[in-house]
Design brief:
alpha/beta, Arginase, Chain A, two-stranded antiparallel ribbon, 10 strands, globular, binds {5-[(3-aminopropyl)amino]pentyl}boronic acid, binds magnesium ion, binds zinc ion, His_deacetylse_dom
Length: about 350
């Protein structure tokens, strides 16, 4: 399997993540991507290719023009205001307040976000753009006949809505990929999100559509991020009714239980009969992940890959979360190797 990777991911190198009342070193850090890349090389998974430049058009099929423009100039606007640190949203339109776009950068940071842990600094825009290009290049490989491709995206994307960043995400790489499949002639596309966290952005983007089936397996949002979306009674709306599926688990869920939901997800996908599959691949389901609470083991990722292969679909994997940097390479590449038949 080919891996698409851009060294430009390292342009996203923020110093801060608001966590527990402190500004800590971010969990979503450059070494994550480098460790996965090293494992891809070590295991000789396949060629490693740099992304092509697709421009903003396929990004804007999913994200609003004004959101994209905001991200492009956010850091300069912040610096121009004389702010001393990294750009961090600190104010939102609460219940009863107006959802209008303010001129001031503090106001716009709040308007275009849903969480405060995701700081912005110089290079975030370039890295987010590169991450989308990585996903789109993998999509092009699969459209051109590859059975599957691994988009080694960083920053991740599945929390990003059409016009909201948060949860370490800016552009929703999985959604952009699914939309690219649609725009190139696929009638139906499925997005399966196996990251520990709910893929709230992907769900929201396709919520009223029946052409893109969205499924996410995740930790109970009553207990974990993103807190305000991802419950099992969210099944889609309008035309999209019945085309969103959330499968929620409690703390300490092992693969033996998690895989029952995977089976339900796979059966729903098989019934949907999509022309392509996008897997939003987080490996923060791992037992030693520092911010998550499932109990998957490294060998379980081989089983996951094997089950995904059995769907028999052209498949793009977009990298999402995974914060135990020591294990992230083994776990992510195990999915690809399981897909390719390694037991
Ligand atoms: C991004 B992805 C940790 C709180 C974490 C943000 C989690 C973002 C996860 N104290 N809040 O889905 O892996
Ligand atoms: Mg998920
Ligand atoms: Zn996650």
């Amino acid at each position: 399997m080919k891996t698409v990777f851009s060294p430009l991911h390292s342009r996203r190198q923020v110093k801060t993540e608001l966590d527990g009342g402190l500004l800590i070193e971010p969990h979503e850090k450059p070494s994550r991507a480098e460790t996965i890349l090293a494992r891809v090389k070590d295991q000789a998974l396949g060629d490693i290719v740099e992304p092509e430049e697709f421009g903003l058009e396929p990004v804007k099929r999913v994200h609003t023009d004004d959101y994209v423009s905001f991200l492009e100039t956010c850091w300069q606007d912040w610096v121009a205001e004389g702010k001393p640190g990294e750009a961090i949203p600190a104010v939102w339109a609460g219940r009863g307040m107006r959802h209008r776009i303010p001129k001031d950068i503090d106001g716009r940071l709040g308007y275009y976000s849903f969480a405060a842990e995701t700081s912005i600094s110089d290079g975030t825009w370039e890295a987010a753009r590169a991450s989308a290009n990585v996903a789109l290049t993998a999509q092009k490989l699969v459209t051109s006949g590859e059975r599957a491709a691994f988009a080694l995206c960083r920053p991740p994307g599945h929390h990003a809505h059409a016009d909201l960043f948060g949860g370490y995400c800016f552009f929703n790489n999985a959604a952009i990929t699914a939309q690219a499949f649609r725009d190139q002639g696929c009638e139906k596309v499925a997005v399966l999100d196996v990251d520990f966290h709910h893929g709230n952005g992907t769900q929201a983007i396709f919520y009223d559509r029946s052409d893109v089936l969205t499924i996410s397996l995740h930790g109970d949002p009553d207990l974990v991020f993103p807190h305000f979306l991802g419950f099992e009674d969210e099944t889609g709306e309008g035309q999209g009714e019945g085309f969103n599926l959330n499968i929620v688990y409690p703390p300490k869920t092992p693969y033996s239980v998690w895989s029952e939901g995977l089976e339900r997800a796979c059966q729903r996908i098989a019934e949907f009969k999509p022309d392509a599959l996008v897997v939003a691949l987080g490996v923060d389901t791992f037992e030693d992940d520092p911010i998550s609470f499932f109990k998957l083991k490294s060998e379980d990722y081989l089983s996951l890959g094997k089950r995904l292969e059995q769907l028999g679909l052209p498949t793009v994997f977009t990298m999402e979360g995974g914060y135990d940097v020591d294990a992230i390479g083994v776990n992510a590449v195990n999915v690809m190797q399981g897909f390719e038949g390694k037991a």
